[in-house]
# Entry
Amino acid sequence: MEFIPREQLINELQDSFKPLMEKYDIDNIGVFEEEGQDDSYYVGYTVSKNGKVYMVHHPYTKNKDGHLARAQGGWTVETDEPGTMDEESFEDVDEVFQRFLM
# Structure
C-alpha cells in the first residue's frame, strides 16, 4: 500500500476538473472529502449537473502522518436527494459519470 500526501491527491483531482467538465458537460465540480471512522477517509468529487448534485468518492486509508493510500472497494455515488440509496463498487470515474451524467 503506497501512501501519498493528501495535498498531492487533491491536486491530482483538481487537475482533472477541466477535462471532466468538458467531456461530461458538468455544471460545477469540486473536491469531496470526508473523514470516516478510525483510519478511513473518503476522497473524490462533488459534481452538479442539471440541478442534481452527486458526491462521487473512493475509500482511502489514512496513516498517522495524514497521508492516504487507496483502500479496497470501488467508487461510491451519493446524491442529495432524500431516500436515495448510495450506489457502490464502480470501477472508475468514467463508469460513474457515464451512468449518472449522460
